[in-house]
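Sharing a chain and its predicted structure for anyone who wants a worked example. Both blocks are below, sequence first, tokens second.
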Amino acid sequence: MIKAIIFDFDGVIIESFDMKTEAFRESFQIYHNVVDDIIQYHLDNYAVSRFVKFKYIYENFLELEYNDAEYREISERFSTIMFKKAVNCPFVNGAEEFLEQFSMLVPLYLVSGTPHEELEQIVEKRDLRKYFKHIWGTPPGTKKQFITGIRQRENCEPNEAIYIGDMLGDLELAKTTGTLFVGRELKQSFEEFNVPSFPNLVGIREWIEDCMST
């Protein structure tokens, strides 16, 4: 019995993988001599929080002091760029139909590495709030805390909640929180881990339909 479905946001509901890379390039484009190295660092550490990356970039690529003023300036610049891109980028194929269908059948939750306030604004602008029982961004909490809380809220036994993600870190998170995992295949492959994975939300929707009918 499936009691809850939990979504990551970037790369699962919206096609945002390249968007993040573009945002890093635009944010640091004035540093011509190191911007390509910054982009490679971002890609090598894709799942790491943007705030951790900012500190590392300032201290190791730019060789600048990363104080409160720099933190606020780069955070606001990056968030402005990301918001515009996230509002306008396309949905993952099948996402809208999935949300419309399953929001009538089971509680849906959104858990993202995007900062909470920014996530709220994007969700509202794209008219997605109506589909979710609750949404959480990080900070303030962690994905693990949120998923554990959802299981408690919905009184889910192990494997009665499904987590949909697109990164290997999402798979590990599902394992540590006792949730079923379904992968959206994008830049990482789940083939060797013997878990269901599909190129879009159409395949994931059909797989969950089969789970709920048996």
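Comments welcome. The two ends are 9 Å apart (CA to CA).
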